[in-house]
Amino acid sequence: MSAPLRVVHLDLSQPLKEIPENERGMFCVLWWRDLPLGQIEIQREQLPMYLPELANRIAQAITPAIGNRLFKTGFLAQLPTNWRSQFATGEPAELTEILKTENPLCRLGENFETPGRSVSVVVCTRDRGESLRRCLRSLMKLSPAPNEIVVVDNAPQTDETHDVAGEFPNVRYLREPRAGLDIARNAGVKNSRSDIVAFADDDVEVHPAWIAKLRAVFADDDIMAVTGLVLPAEIETEAQYLFENYWGFNRGYRAKIFDRAWFERELPRGVPADQIGAGANMAFRRKIFEHIGGFDERLDVGAAGCSGDSEFWYRILAHGWKCRYEPSAVVFHHHRRAMENLDRQIFFYMRGHVTALLVQFEKFRHFGNLRRLLLTLPRYYIESLTGSLLKPEKRRTLWAQIAGHFSGIRFYFENR
After folding, report:
1. What is the DSSP secondary-structure string of 149-193?
2. β 223-232/281-285 pair status
3. Tell me: the pLDDT tens digits for 79-121?
4. How far is 265 from 270, CA to CA, in rounded Å?
C-alpha cells in the first residue's frame, strides 16, 4: 500500500530543492504561481531524490499542460471515450516544441482576462458544521470575491449549519426542508442573483483564484458549464489513496472542450458525461436553467446517490451547447478517511450512475445509454473479476459497484 502520502505544492517560480532520504512519500502538485501544471508521486523508497532526477520528472509531468497553454495545436488533451475512436484527440507534441520557446513558464497565464460577470457561489450542506466552516473560510479568501455566497441548509436536523453560516457576515443562509442534493442545488439557483452560478461542495477548500479562473472561461458565449480541477487536500489513509487513484475527481491539467460533435461521436455506445468534471467544482451560466430546466431531483445524494451533475452536462450537450473543463480553477477535496465510508460512497456512485443512464434514455431515447447499462458495465465487472483490467486494490470495491448497479435499476423504476 502506497499510503500515506504527504500532499506537497511546489511553485516552480521558486528554486527547487532536493528531497532528503528521511522524507516520507509525497504527492507533489506542480504549479507556476497560481496555475497548476501537473503532478508527480514520489514513493519513500525512491528517496533521496537529487535535483537532476527531480527536474527531469517535473519536466515530463508539466510539458503537456505548458504546450496546451502556449500552442493552439499539438498539445490538446484526449477527450474521454467509451471505445477506441479515430476521432480521439492526439497525444501531446514533443518536448522540443517547448524548448524552442523562450521562457515558456513566464508566458503562462497571459491570456487569462477576467470579464466583469457577476458570480454567485452556492454551497449545499447538511449538518456538517466543521466541513462547512473550513469551506467558508476558504471562500472568504477569494480574489476577486464573488458577488454573493449562498449556503443552502438541506433538511437539517440541527441548527449547526445556521450557526456556522452566521459566523460569516457576507454569507446568506437559505433553509431547504426537502432532502436531496439536487433539490438543494435548484433552491440555490432559484434564490441566487448573479449571471454565473458556481457550486462548491462543503468538503472542499477553494483556491483564492477560483472565481477569476471560472469567470474568464465564460467569455465564450457557447459555453454553458465549466468544471475545474479537484485536488486531494490530504492522502493520509488507505481509503483516501484508493479513492484518489481510482475514483478521484482529477481530470488532468489540460483544458478540454466538450461540444456537440464529441457528444454525437459518443452516442452509439453511451456518452461518458461523468468524465467532464465533478459537482464539487462546477459553474453554469444562469440562462441555461431557463432553457433546459434544473437538476433532476431523482439523482444525487439523498435520492439515487450521484450523477445529478453529469446528467445536467449531458442535457446541455444534447441541446447543442458546450461544456469546458478548466484545470486552472482549483479546489481541494477532503476524501473520506475510512474504508467502510469509501465502500458506501462507491455503492452510491454506481447507483446514481446507473439511474442517470436510465433517466437520460427516458428523456432523449439515446440507446447508447442502454448499451452502457446492459453491455459495457457488465463486461467491465467480468473483466475486473478475472483480473484482466484492474489492479487488485481496485477490485476491493467491485462488489459495492455491482450492488449499486442493481440498486440503481430498482431505484429508477420505483421513481419514474
Report:
1. EEEEEES-SSSHHHHHHHTSTTEEEEEE-S--HHHHHHHHHHT--
2. antiparallel
3. 998 754 433 444 444 555 555 565 666 667 655 555 678 999 9
4. 9
Alpha helices in 46-202, H assignment, sequence order: 51-70, 95-99, 129-139, 160-166, 181-190
What pLDDT is attached to residue 86?
38
CB 128, CB 203: distance < 8 Å:
yes
Q: What is the dihedral of CA 135, 141, 144, 150, to 10 degrees?
A: 30
Question: For the segment 320-358, what is each residue's pLDDT rounded down to a tens digit?
Answer: 999 999 999 999 999 999 988 899 999 999 999 999 999
Would you call 78 exposed, middle or buried from its count of C-beta atoms within 10 A (0-12, 13-18, 19+)?
middle
- Are 408 and 416 in contact by the 8 Å Cβ rule? The answer is no
What residues form DSSP beta bridges with 258? 323
| DSSP 8-state assignment for residue 278 | B
For residues 376 and 269, what is the distance between their CA atoms, to the nearest angstrom? 8
* Domains of the chain, start order: 6-107 (no CATH), 119-339 (3.90.550.10), 342-414 (no CATH)
- Find out whether 37 and 66 touch, Cβ atoms under 8 Å: yes
Residues found in the chain: 416
> Are 144 and 211 spatial neighbours (Cβ–Cβ below 8 Å)?
yes
pTM: 0.92
CB-based burial label for 286 (10 Å; 0-12, 13-18, 19+): middle
* Cα angle 41-47-51, degrees, rounded to a multiple of 5: 85
**Calpha distance 329→119 (Å, rounded):** 14
Give the up-direction half-sphere exposure of residue 135: CA atoms within 13 A in the CB hemisphere. Answer: 28
* 3 state DSSP class of 361: helix
